[in-house]
Design a protein that fits this description.
It is built from three helices and three strands, in the order βααββα.
């Protein structure tokens, strides 16, 4: 199977919120793409202790790291405040894993997360 690098770019851009619930706007991801997820461990306790900025920074860094690792491609992602989920092409999987390991180290050193 060949890599479907243009999978996301080839689909309809939803420009109105109401269109988000129209099932015809959705399709299955290619079999050779991966779901990358990241979660800031201990985020609830950190937020309760006033560390919400660090939690948000670590979560946002996950998105930045994934996008940078994938390169010059649009990819679907969701930022959850204390983590992220993204759909990535197989060709970028190892780079994304390495980038997220870097975010893990940064979050530990900078925020104790």
């Amino acid at each position: 199977m060949t890599e479907s690098l243009n999978f996301f770019e080839a689909h309809l851009e939803i420009d109105q919120f109401e269109k988000c619930i129209v099932l015809e706007h959705y399709c299955s991801a290619p079999e050779n793409w991966w779901v990358a997820t990241a979660d800031v461990k201990g985020s609830t306790k950190a937020i309760e202790a006033g560390g919400y900025k660090g939690v948000n920074a670590a979560g946002a860094a996950c998105i930045t790291a994934i996008i940078n690792a994938v390169g010059q491609r649009d990819i679907p992602f969701v930022f959850g405040g204390d983590g992220a989920t993204a759909l990535i092409p197989n060709l970028a999987k190892e780079r994304v894993l390495k980038a997220l390991a870097g975010v893990r180290q940064m979050a530990l050193e900078a925020f104790g997360l």
